[in-house]
Amino acid sequence: MKTHYRSLQARLLLPMLGLLLLVAPISGGLLYRYHRNQVENALLTQGALLNDAIVLAAESTHDPVELRRFVMAMGASRNIREIVVVGGTPLQVIATTQLEWDGQVLERLPEEDVRADLERVLQSGTAWHAFDQEGGKAFDYSAPFIFSQVNPQGGPPIPTRGAIMIHIDTTLTSAAIQQSILTILGTAGGVAVLLLVAGYVLLLRRVIRPSRHIVEVIREQQDSNVRWRTGMQEADEIGYIGKALDTLLDEMQERQQALAQARNAAEAANQAKSAFLANMSHEIRTPMNAVLGFTRLLEDTSLTPEQRDYLRAVSTSGESLLALINDILDYSKIEAGRMDFEYIDFDSRLPFEDAIEVMASKAEEKHLQLAGLISPGLPPRLQGDPGRLRQVVINLLGNAIKFTDQGQVVLRVETQPLDPARCMLRFTVTDSGIGMSEDTLTKLFKPFSQADASTTRRFGGTGLGLSICQRIIQGMGGKITVSSQPGQGSTFTVSLPLTIATQTTTPPTSTTSLSGKRVLVVDDNPLNVELLRLTLENWGMQVTTTHDPQSVLPLLQGSEHTFELAILDQQMPGLDGLGLAQMIRSMPHPPLLVLLTSLATKGQSQDIREAGFDGYLTKPFRASQLAELLQVVLGSGHGGTLHTRHTLAEQRQASRPTLLLAEDNVVNQRLVTLLLEKLGYRVDVVDNGRKAVSAASMGNYPLILMDCQMPELDGLEATRQIRAQGLSMPIIALTANAFESDRLDCLNAGMNDFLTKPVRAELLATTLDNWLQSAELKASR
């Protein structure tokens, strides 16, 4: 930033000029008074000399005629206007330069000023002088005197009292004195100017120029020219400042060099740490992918109870190890200041539905009710980082489930408009768990901290989760708060401002066929009832709800309008959903029945089918899954077929395409192939990037799953070569590299999405569905 200031030269010269302007009028006034005094003194001296000369002449000669001649001679001077000498008895003019006044009595003189001056002197007996009233152009000098007059009787001279008045013109005297003053003033002014110039030159050389040089060095330092120095050696104050500045700059340069070396060393260490973490993450995730993947596949096979317990222990331990790895990686990114965020359009419901689906099994293990209440007013698509948002939701749900032994965990999601283009996304996670004290709340978001040491031992964990969540939310411009009381559960609230996306990239699930349908919802849990009511009404359905299963039959029999559909919960007090369904089926015109259950056990489909249901879903479920099931059930009617999540998936899988998998690890090849085949896809496998490029150019694959680290040609370069051929099918990274920089490298290479190993079947299915639907939508345009 440029600094504006007044130069030292201006700061010194301006006060000097101001002082000069102040001194000039004062000096002028003093010179005027000096000039006037000099003129007055000169005229006074001239008047006194003329007076003494006339008195001497009068004493030397007693002849009036000679006195008159002498006065006339004196009056002939250039600056004498008039001389009047009066004396005798009575007083009369005895000599004057004005001939017409000669011999006149004083009292009859025509000039009152002359008469008044003479009378004043005669009366006072003292000399008097003054400038006249013509602006100082004349000077009057009057003085009394005594002279001897000739005795007409022949005796000794007679002493006679008289007075002399001399009227002097001041012009010549004033001009002479003024010329003298001007000469002196000019000389003094010249000397002053020379002194001023000399002083300025001295000031310029000793102060201003060295100061400018110091300022120039400082400016160069600000422009990063750190080698500039003043080089001053003078022994005065300015030189001392220059030498001190040079010393300070030398020390600063040494410190900057030391700091740069320390920074380079720290960056090198940080890069080494990041490389180590990335390598360890890759090496750990690769076998973990196989362990967890085959464990999930094994869970779907016939196992004894003992074997299933062993398998569950392996799965739980693997998930804990994976969570630990993720926490350490995220915290290392935060500490290094490398927590990056992306801003892309995403389905607003997807991060929350994914999180609920992922955490459903953990809630079921503890027999907890897990509910997700997503407001129907949620904008269809938002702009932000869905991966980080999903990470926060999963962490908050995981904590709520971990610290809750009985009751429920509820996720509520809503938005509030900020302006036409932005909204405030607000979601809460509420549990009925152990709660927290005020002391615990104060340290809750600090790294490596939990409620207390016993909590850490009892519930496990690194204590990094909430700290990471807070950093993520703050990095996205939001905030996270918590309220809790011991024994009464906790509520975490996240407020996040997001931009509303204007474009739709995936076709939304159509619910037009559900509009206007009458549906009865039966569930003893108010949260579930509220969730279903909001969702169904958002689709245009006419919803009636009840919490009491005993009131269902009277309600169906006494209704004026026929219900086309009834949605029942399985676990209800007094009468469960299966028993209620059998009673409804015994009615003359029963509605279609759909069961929502939190129990996922082997063989339950046969019991549900025998109870008379037309379809069922396991909680938690996505809104799109419920919409799809209801449309199929209403379209099929009472056909005896039980429609489930699996039958719907089988219908979609019948038309599933063949995908290309590029993976060099044989175990991972087998695992991913089994996962994809279980999802209904056919798979072609290649073991390096060069084969992937060749297969992509020859085959018609709608989607490619690409590992990043492969022999001959890695996944990034393979993707670049595929894009260079003009092929635009979605390419999804499937890699053990979990850093944000790895994800960015994949996206920059031309990949569309990024999945880290070990990959979850649910997340893999969702990702494939989204990108294949997007590709179909683009192809149809």
- Ends: how far apart? 53 Å
Look at the helices and sheets and give the structural class: alpha/beta
Rg, rounded, reads 57 Å
Instruction: Identify low-pLDDT runs.
Output: 1-5, 451-458
- Outline type: elongated
Give me the number of helical elements: 22
User: What percent strand?
Assistant: 15-25%
Largest sheet: 7 strands, mixed
Mean pLDDT: 80
Helix content: 40-55%
β-strand number: 22
Concise structural overview:
This protein is α/β, with parallel strands linked by helices. Strands 6, 7, 8, 9, 10, 11 and 12 form a 7-stranded mixed beta sheet that branches. A 5-stranded antiparallel beta sheet has the order 2-1-5-4-3, sandwiched between helices. Strands 14-13-15-16-17 form a 5-stranded parallel beta sheet, with helices on both faces.
How would you describe the overall organization of this protein?
There is one protein chain. This protein has 22 helices and 22 strands. The protein has about 775 residues and is of the alpha/beta class. The strands form 4 sheets. Strands 6, 7, 8, 9, 10, 11 and 12 form a 7-stranded mixed sheet that branches. A 5-stranded antiparallel sheet has the order 2-1-5-4-3, sandwiched between helices. α15 links the parallel β16 and β17. The longest helix is centred in the middle third of the chain and has 63 residues. The protein is elongated. The N terminus is likely disordered.
